[in-house]
Amino acid sequence: MTLRSRLLLAQAPLVLALLFLGATAVITLARVGRSGQQVLEDNYRSVLATQRISEQLERMDSAALFIIAGERERGMAQQAAQRPLLESELGIQLGNITEPGEAEATARLRTAWAEYRTAFDVFLQDPEPASARTRYFESLSPAFQEAKAAASSILALNQDAMVRKSDRLRQQSERVNTLMSLAVAAALGFGLFFTTSLVQRALRPVSVLSQAVRRLGQGDVEARAVVEGRDEIASLARDFNTMAERLGQYRKSSLGELLQAQAVSQAAIDSLPDPVLVLGADGELLNVNAAAEEVLRLRLDEGGDALGRVEPEVRAVLERVRAHVVGGRGAYQPRGYEEAVRVESAPEGGRWLLPRGSPVHGETGDVVGATLILQDVTRLRRFDELKNDLVATVAHEFRTPLTSLRMAIHLVAEGVVGNVTEKQADLLFAAREDCERLQGIVDDLLDLSRIQSGQLQLDLREVRAEELVEHALAAQRTLAEDRGVRLSQAASPDVDTVRVDPERLQLVLGNLVGNGVKHTPPGGEVSVHVSRSATHARFEVRDTGEGIPEQEQARIFEKFYRAPGAPAGGAGLGLSIARDIVQAHGGELGVVSTPGQGSTFWFTLPQPGQD
């Protein structure tokens, strides 16, 4: 039997109970209806007939009184009209005798009517009013009273019968109500009991199959659903058992390979000297290698918020890298050693770790996690610090003799120590330009060393933005005129002052404008624009030069980097120093460029009163 047939069969008791209840209701209501109809058939017609007979007797008596009063014609017409009606109603009563004693009362009425009719005929034959009056009181009125009393007795008999039958009908209705209530309760109880039993029996295999599925979902591949029969559930249970059996076979056959692959992959990441963490999309810790356990004190078996036990600074870095990767922005690559974070809890002392991140993709290609590698750059950072110290020392040591050299060349070139020939003057002029260029490099190196050592102190003051731009352009105007490049400026009226270190910001603007002039061909233009956003002032230096290739734009802010084809001179520090100065002011510096269409270097500064 199919599951559908079983479920339909389970509804059969309820259907039978409803049919039984309906049949009982129909039969009982039919009986009540017949009882009410019997009251109408047996008594109501007699009551109606006797009431009409009494009314017609009253009218005939009124006709006799009209005759006595001298209105003989009116009385004759009225009594003649009532006789056939009375005879008709009397015939109806004779044919509707249903109660005990009603036949005798009807015979009495018939006799009284006959006597009253005879007396009325005699009364009509007496033409004398006085004689007719005497005859009315002596014979006609007593006959009238007798006939009316007979009709009243029949009326009372039928009314009493109607009252009795109405009481019986009420009692019968009460019994019917009680019977119907019992029948409803019995039918409902019977239907619910048998329907529930049959439904439970029909669905018991579903419960067995559900428990087997739950066990299989928990990893018990030995779970089986034992369901007898040939219905759909039994067929589904057999298919489930087949699936569970094959899954068990597959697990047994591939478990060793899976465990071996897992062991190999774990050994591979454990062999890495740098800490490796695998984080889920929600930040949960999925896996770590031995180096992460040792350096960061992480354990997978500790449960809960494992990252919560990491140092706050390290955790902030890990969360930032994870958010970048999981947010769909690709792998995370650090911009430099400045992003390295120091870990003090390492066994051999403090370490500097540089974060990197790669996405972990699911079966559908979505990013479901991130693999984070904390590269140990402690030695490289120390080498970088030594290099910076060396550069700072060399630059500082160069400064004093370079100043003396510049002064000596200046004195000789000016003829203070004697006249020089034209050729000697040309050589001294070239030497003086090289000294100036070397002095600029030394100044850049000293600024860089101060920035990297954290010794850069900003003297912040309220300065007019237009004044900053004018000074920057004035410093580069001679160079621009020599190269045939126009300089221009435009400031938005809503930008009045900015809170900056004027000397440092002049260095930024001078570097950007100078670079623009150097890379703009004769006849081109370098312009400085100042505008305002919601919270920042924005400076833009636009040139009409050759532009910067896209692959070079990300590297031009690196220290000591010089783009291919760049003009000779400089150490590749200008843009790096400019970026550090702008960041020290709380702003950002960037570039927008298209090869052949010029470049726009921009930086932002917080507005006065803004965070």
From TrEMBL:
Superkingdom of the source species: Bacteria
Q: What is its main location?
A: membrane
Q: Name one Pfam family in it.
A: PAS_4
The HAMP domain is annotated at 200-252
Per the record, GO CC terms?
plasma membrane
- What's the Enzyme Commission number for this chain? 2.7.13.3
User: Care to name a GO molecular-function term for this sequence?
Assistant: ATP binding
Domain (PAS): residue spans on this chain: 261-302
Alphabetized, the UniProt keywords read: ATP-binding, Cell membrane, Kinase, Membrane, Nucleotide-binding, Phosphoprotein, Transferase, Two-component regulatory system
Enzyme type, top EC level: transferase
Q: Where in the cell is it found?
A: Cell membrane
For this protein, the record's InterPro entries field holds: HAMP_dom, HATPase_C_sf, HATPase_dom, His_kinase_dom, HisK_dim/P_dom, HisK_dim/P_sf, PAS, PAS-like_dom_sf
Q: Matching PROSITE patterns, A to Z?
A: HAMP (PS50885), HIS_KIN (PS50109), PAS (PS50112)
Q: Which reaction does it catalyse?
A: ATP + protein L-histidine = ADP + protein N-phospho-L-histidine
* Domain Histidine kinase, residue spans: 393-609
PANTHER family reported for this sequence: HISTIDINE KINASE 1 (PTHR43711:SF1), TWO-COMPONENT HISTIDINE KINASE (PTHR43711)
- Name of the molecule in the record: histidine kinase
The protein's organism comes out as Corallococcus carmarthensis
